[in-house]
Amino acid sequence: MNSTSANSGKKNNQSNELNEISINKNPFIQFTKWYESILNSNLNEPTAMMLSTADVNGNSSARIVLLKEFDDSGFVFYTNYESRKGKDLNKNPKAALNFFWDEPARQIRIEGRIEKISREASKKYFSTRPRESRVGAWVSAQSSVIPNRKFLENKFDELEKKFNNEEIPLPDFWGGYRVIPNYFEFWQGRENRLHDRICYKKENDDWKIFRLSP
């Protein structure tokens, strides 16, 4: 972490202490506790998370996506299945998530396997998106090379006229993924860079909890 994060940790080190006694034994409950605290703050894009994937050759890539829902079965986001991340996940269905919230100096790392959610669930979410975003999903062949921005704008206008006032269907190439965790790490910034790092690792049906050196 950079010096700004370290300073944030110093400012909040007492009230935000993280230890093996106070942490919840269930990582999903601990995540919810921190996440709800962030949602009640004035932080911009509190649902933003870094999604890291790798292809079959081990070439990794990372990008920001938005968390749309979660429960004890995993963390859900939506994207184009034909994007780079979609192609990575099709061949190598493992991923890592990273949430970083600067003001409370907190970070949560999550690792696990990934699966597509049902088409019915994707359709339900898709129907809640603004109409322009639904048209945009059809317009963008995500991660493909295009000649210029005008190409996108023309395609958007064309599809907007095509759909007119009709219901916009869910594209076959678009939907949700669920990250099913087998590892969590909760990081709390502290003074002198002696940060708290509490981890959960799935072993059979139980979560093993341990501390890492910062």
Structure description:
The protein folds into 2 domains: 3-127 and 172-211, Pnp Oxidase, Chain A; 128-169, no CATH class. It starts with a helix and ends with a strand. The protein is of the alpha+beta class and 214 residues long. Strand 8 and strand 9 form a beta hairpin. Strands 1, 2, 3, 4, 5, 6, 7, 8 and 9 form a 9-stranded antiparallel beta sheet that branches. It contains 6 helices and 9 strands, in the order ααββββαββαααβββ. 29% of the residues lie in helices and 34% in strands. Helix 5 packs across helix 6. The protein has helices at 3-11, 27-39, 84-91, 119-126, 131-139, 149-163; strands at residues 48-54, 60-66, 69-71, 74-80, 94-101, 106-116, 174-188, 196-203, 206-211.
Question: Top keywords for this entry?
Answer:
nine-stranded antiparallel β-sheet; 9 strands; alpha+beta; Pnp Oxidase, Chain A; 34% strand; 214 residues; elongated; disordered N terminus
